[in-house]
Every structure is written in C-alpha cells, then in structure tokens.
Amino acid sequence: MTLTLEGKTLGPAAKPLLIAELSANHDRDLDQALALVDIAAEAGWDALKLQTYDADSLTIPSDHPSIRIDKVWGHDTLYDLYRTAGMPMAFHAPLFAAARERGLLPFTSVYDPRDLDFVEDLGCAVYKIASFEMTFDDLLAAVGQTGKPVILSTGMATLDEVAHALEVLDGAGSGPVILLHCTSSYPAPPEDVNLDAMTAMGARFDRMTGFSDHTIGARAPLAAAAMGAVAIEKHFTNDPTRQGPDHRFSATPEVMAEIAAGVAEIHMLRGSPEKRTTPAEAENKALGRRSAFALRDLSAGAALGDGDYRFVRPGAGIPANDPGALRGARLARAVARGHPIGYDDLA
Fold it and tell me: Same domain, yes or no, for 290 and 261?
C-alpha cells in the first residue's frame, strides 16, 4: 500500500501528501496562476492540482430551471459559471512546468473523456476524479484504461456508490486508487465533515484513504492527518477577497503554511506501528522501573525468601514482571544489602 509519483510517496508510513488545489483561483490569468504555484511551494506543499474542463465538458446551454444556480457563485447558470471558471487549456503546459520546477507534483482532475488525450500529452502521472464525477461511468472507464493511478474524491457518496466506482475503475485496468473522503459543501460546516468515514472506507475497501477539505482553516486537515490520511487536498488562494467562485472558501498562504507545519509534526508524532522503548525513554526506563533489591546482606548459597528482597526502583536487577525467577532460588554469590539482585547472581 505504497505509491511513488515523481518522487512523492503516498502510503501509511509516509508523510501525508499535501495537494494544493488551484481550482478556479487562476482567474483565467496565467500570471495569477503562476503566482499560486509559488505560494504552494513556499508553504511546503507537495503537489499542485489543476482542473481540466470547459463549460461544454460539464453541461450545455439551457434555459431549464434546473441549470440555474445560487447567486453566491456569481452567475445565473451552471454554463455561465463554468465558462468563466474553466482554466484555459493553454495554461496547462506552463503550469505543469512551473510546478515541477518548484518541486511539486503536477496533476489534474479530468471531467470529460474527450480531454484525456490532451492531458496524456502533458505526462500526467496520476488522475483525479472529482466527487461530482464519481458516478460518471464513461469517465471512470476512460481514466481507468490509462492504467495510471487515480485519486477519487467521494463527496456526497454512499459506500455502495464508492464500491461501484471502484468496480468500474478496476474493471477498466486502473492503477492503484486512493480514496479521498470529502464533504461537497463550499465551505463545509465542521459538523458535517465526519472524518470517521475516511477510516471506514479504508477498512471496507482496503485502499489508501485521504481527505479533500472544504472547511475554513487548518483544524480539519490536521485532524485527518492524525487519523492516518495518506493525502490531504485543499483549495488555496493568495487573497480570499478576490472576485471568483472559489476564493471565498480557499486557504490563505498563512493557513497553507500552518497545515504543512502541523502535518509534518503530526507525522513525526504518529511514528510507526512498532511499540518500543525510544532512546529518549531509555534513561527513565532504567531509573523508574522496579526490580529486585536485597533488604539485608545475603550470603552465597542462600535460598531467597519474601523477606530477603523487594521490588523497588531503579530497574537495575531482575524486573518486577518476573517474580518467579526469584521465588525459592539460591544465590550463586553474596549480595549486599541495598544492592540489586540480577539474573547472574542466581545459581
């Protein structure tokens, strides 16, 4: 359960992969988009994720009431929103190059099978399937047929829907699939985040799992890191007051840096599944654990009785969790009062 992509490792023992989601915050301005690449790198993130679509990738012009949207998105219809939020295709190559130059793994979300050939030409190492597209079987099959790894967001999904998406991807020959738990609300209320679903998916499907975050602030992604997320994705911006559909719920550079520092510390704190005495504990273990000490001068050949010793600190003699070694034992040599009784003192 480990995957390496352009030198970045995902897996239970690795630091969570931090995925900076550019989303629509490029504002259709290449200089703005390139500035965001620098912000992600300087904040200590690992990957840059783009979104590859235009309005026709997602919907069609229509006057049907169902296509109308909340004014919070700045447009009246889905088509108008995607027409202005979609990133120009010409931005992809320079952003992939800039990301790699700054040490970031570049990849993208694909929304339409017709765009796959374009993205394949960029040398995209992994594909993202957005939550809204995880029930689009034709897209899942097309992405799966590339044989590349897939990061699958699961916002709004039931476990049965996740199972179906995995069946389609696996059946098409997909590479490893990483599941991201997600709450598809913008911003997501903390009470709806439900991070336990992330671990439930890992247990149900035996896949690596992570978290795609839409909350405000750093707490949710840091909690996900502490719970074992192998990847954390978050929208980011250089100014949440800028015009555009995604800036208002995106992380600032300061929050991005806070998450990166916190995730690194949490990874250090989590350590490994091995339970062991650490070097920092060794001295305290020797001083604080109980062991057998003589209560009086004991001669060689003496048979030890209960009044001859006690288990006290420090741990210089036979440990207190092995009392059977002392009961009825004889001493091979004399032990002075107040000295530890060790295994080599026994006959």
Answer: no
